UniProtKB/TrEMBL annotation:
One of its GO terms (molecular function) is oxidoreductase activity, acting on paired donors, with incorporation or reduction of molecular oxygen. Residues 3-320 form the Luciferase-like domain. Keywords: Oxidoreductase. This is Coenzyme F420-dependent oxidoreductase. NCBIfam families: F420_Rv3520c.
């Protein structure tokens, strides 16, 4: 099992990079940089490429709506170049809250756009003269929709790799099925190992049945809050604000993917209550409404023995990469937590 960290998109930029340098020394395999409506992920990934030498760098994730497919491919090729072949492109649809609310771009056809983005990126990395006639993207633009002067182009530079790995963050059954079919990796959020098969098993099997064998096994990259020790029970509360934000406020009342996930996990009434409180501005009450049970089953918080049991549950559920989010009092404690996680996880 690979071990990595998921950087907070609200954290200090340079401070986080210095911590990653130290975490690389204790043996992490991968670091993921999120992007929502803070600093962009690409700037920090480029900075990390210069500061590190071994760890894989992952965008975790960039929304497909905010960049053209060709720009996503160019950016990934550039990051792969400056990191000497250590970059993985993590993409996702995000949701209407970010895509429409912050970027002003219609959130439409997530499945179709995801498939087309992946196909175009791979063609760009192969340095093909990209001719693509998709439902959502056409390269070059048809003459009757533009000047008619466009012609197929290929990337000027030679990428370090012509097959940069692509991971997709997905939650809904159809999107997870698509991920299992076309992606190198899957980045689910709030992963509940004991209920993963019930929630996603059929979708993963359906996608795997259509998967090109050349892609190899799907790398399941699950994130989890992390705190290891006999005195870390208070860290359960530290994890609740993020759960409350996503379940309660990351989307409209009738269109919130994280609320839907909590419901599929069996926390429907609780999710409704969190959403009601959050959308009415009662955020503290929404945070307090997040049950300890949900936090415990979607995190790695507790004594070493308990965390070892939780790691085994993630492995049993098929997780191949654990992305930890340390809930630490200081950078030193964060590094200690991750080092202990590295010791406890199977090689």
């Amino acid at each position: 099992m690979r071990i990595g960290v998921q950087l907070s998109y609200a954290g200090g930029f340079k401070e986080a990079a210095e911590q990653v340098v130290e975490l690389e020394r204790v043996g992490i395999d991968v670091v993921a940089v999120a992007e929502a409506y803070s600093f962009d992920a690409v700037s920090q990934l480029g900075y990390l490429a210069a500061k590190t030498s071994r760890v894989e760098l992952v965008s975790g994730v960039v929304p497909i709506y905010t960049r053209t497919p060709a720009l996503l491919a160019m950016t990934a090729a550039g990051l792969d170049f400056v990191s000497d072949g250590r970059f993985r492109l993590g993409i996702g649809t995000s949701g209407p809250q970010v895509v429409e609310g912050f970027h002003g771009v219609p959130f439409d056809a997530p499945l179709g756009r995801t498939r087309e983005v992946v196909e175009i990126c791979r063609a760009v990395w192969r340095r093909e003269r990209v001719r693509y006639d998709g439902k959502h993207y056409q390269l070059p633009l048809p003459a009757d929709r533009g000047t008619g002067l466009g012609k197929p182009l290929r990337l000027i530079n030679h990428p370090v790799r012509e097959a940069i790995p692509i991971s997709i963050a997905s939650l809904g059954p159809k999107n997870v099925e698509l991920t299992a079919e076309i992606a190198d990796g899957w980045q689910p959020v709030f992963f509940y190992p004991e209920r993963a098969a019930e929630v996603w098993g059929d979708a993963l099997k359906a996608g795997a049945a259509k998967r090109n064998p050349t892609l190899g096994p799907l790398d399941i990259m699950a994130g989890a809050s992390l705190a290891i020790g006999d005195d870390v029970e208070d860290r359960l509360a530290w994890a609740k604000p993020q759960l409350a934000l996503y379940i309660g406020g990351m989307g409209a009342r009738t269109r919130n993917f994280y609320h839907n996930l909590a419901t599929r996990y069996g926390f429907g009434e609780v999710a409704d209550r969190i959403q009601e409180l959050y959308l009415s501005g009662r955020k503290t009450e929404a945070i307090n409404a997040v049950p300890d049970e949900l936090v415990r089953h979607t995190s790695l918080i507790g004594p070493r023995g308990l965390v070892a049991e939780r790691i085994a549950a993630y492995a049993e559920a098929g997780v191949t990469t654990l992305l930890a989010g340390p809930l630490a009092k200081d950078p030193g404690e964060a590094v200690r937590f991750v080092a202990e996680l590295r010791e406890l996880a199977p090689a």
